[in-house]
Amino acid sequence: MSSALGAIGFLDSDVACIWAVIEVETASITQGFGFLLDRRPQILFERHKFREFTKGVFNSIAPDISGPVGGYGVSQYPRIDKALRLCQQRRLGVEPALKSASWGIGQVMGFNHNLAGYPSAAAMVKDMIESEDNQLFAMTMFLQNSGLATHLIKRDWTKFAVGYNGKDQATHKYDYRLETQYRRFISGSLPNLQVRAAQAALLILGYSPGRIDGVLGQRSQNAIANYRIASGLPVGNTLDGAVYDKLSRDVGWA
Questions:
Q1: Cα–Cα distance measured from residue 160 to residue 166, given in angstroms and rounded to the nearest whole number
Q2: Is residue 30 domain-shared with residue 76, that is, in the same domain?
Q3: What separation in angstroms does the CA of 76 have from each of 41, 45, 62, 82, 98?
Q4: The pTM is what?
Q5: Which domain holds residue 175?
Q6: What residue ranges of the chain have pLDDT lower than 50?
């Protein structure tokens, strides 16, 4: 399945570090998954960045998406869709809007597209739409090219958090959360990629497996049991080859 995060070994660091970053970054997005149920990438739109990239030309007519202070709001895509429409009307292209949002499983800001390995925010977004692997690739490229990978390898959580989450990271205790998740993963509780991919498929198909975390907990087992019944497979709650293969076909990943 394309959500199996096959690019997980790209960064020259132990895998637990990468999973710690993913776990903390996905805490703010639905289900810990890089996509919404409609298969659009998870995003957070930052109105102060849009204000910056458009030089404030929309401040008076659209303060909700071009305000002086950061903040995300509830509905992300209506906000970025509005930004795109306004930019189109002023013939500014798509870049100001796409650069003003963070994208995918690593929540890489669009304005960091060069560091993520792309010539434009539009190119980065186009790639991220395809798979979580591409989203992870963008994240790891950003970490490497920005120099943040060095802090990650050294386990300097505070320096890493400041570089990745901003100077106000302490307010949200990003450094503490990163270290906590790292210690959890380094203890041997790394996510199972096959389970995670199955959870993602179940989520897309409407079976509510809980958080997409690669752990076959009770909610995931219940989702598998319901999926088995609906699919005419033998009754049970185990993730075997038949279930995995059918999930792959049902979501178009086979």
A1: 9
A2: no
A3: 11, 6, 15, 10, 12
A4: 0.87
A5: 6-39+105-186
A6: 1-4, 6-10, 12
